[in-house]
Amino acid sequence: MKMLFTILLVIFNIAYAYAITVNVKDQGAKGDGVTDDTRAFDRSVEMVCERGGVLFVPNGNYRLNGLTRRRSGVNGNGYIFLMLNSLEWRMEKDAILLFENNFQGFRFRSLTDPNAKTITKLSLIINGGKVLGRDIKSKGKGNPEKWAFVGEYLKSMSVQNLEIENLFASAGVASYHNDFVSVINCKLKNVTGNSGDLMDNHGDGIYIGWTSKYLIKGNSVLNDVTTRRLGRIGICIEYEKSKNGTVEKTLSAGMIGVYT
Fold first, then answer.
1. Which of 105, 181, 217, 258 would bridge with 147, disulfide CB 3.0–4.6 Å?
2. Is residue 15 domain-resident?
């Protein structure tokens, strides 16, 4: 019995030592609203995705620039990060991410090939802070390949106490092929799709697809931008697998739709 306890203790210590806390400022981010913090953020995210733990973003204004992003990502997509361990992205209340020049956000995935369709035991938590877009007037056609945060092929994804404003994107928060997702106490304002496209090209505040269970509670999803085309601008839950969940105490000025 003593030997078994010792083995379990060693395993626990190894796992604990492998998980880390990464402060983006320790990786070179300034948060002064002037410095381009793109590479510091991408480097920090890669570290936590590999080892697991906490990505910590202190108060500040962090410029994230789509023109200076250089990572290859997954299958050539610089915004996709491969998770090898569970992680939490934790932002202080006044930590603001400034998305500019078509910065495409952060998409977390548990496998390289999405066709494998494997749900892992990994979990993703996004907690606190604010995302502010700077190119909401972007024009064009088709689905904008932009989000604030996406999780896919995970055991669970949780987004809480997050604010997103003025983001031209496919969605502010999105869940694809996860076992469970919760979006709680978030405020999303003016998340819009292609204003020049008459097709239904997204712009959801919250998007959930192919997700077994979901809880959307205590959120505000509003829009006061007046353009010819705003996408769906609300909450979209779709596909056969996404039938088991609840939306409660949530205000949406756009549509709340369940599509199968």
1. 105
2. no
42-64 pLDDT per residue, tens: 999 999 999 999 999 999 999 99
Tell me what pLDDT residue 19 has. Answer: 79
**What is the sign of the dihedral through the CA atoms of 104, 109, 113 and 115?**
negative
**Structural domain includes residue 210:** yes
What's the domain range around 29? 20-259
The pLDDT, as a whole number, for residue 9 is 43
pLDDT of residue 198: 54
Place of tokens 């948060």: 31
Cβ burial, residue 246 (10 Å; 0-12/13-18/19+): exposed
Whichever domain contains 241, its CATH number is 2.160.20.10
Angle at the Cα of 76 (from 74 to 82), degrees rounded to 5? 10
Overall domain count for the chain: 1
User: How many beta carbons lie within 10 A of that of residue 151, not counting itself?
Assistant: 28
What global pTM score does this model have?
A: 0.88
Nearest to 61 by CA among 113, 7, 99: 99
pLDDT of residue 53: 97
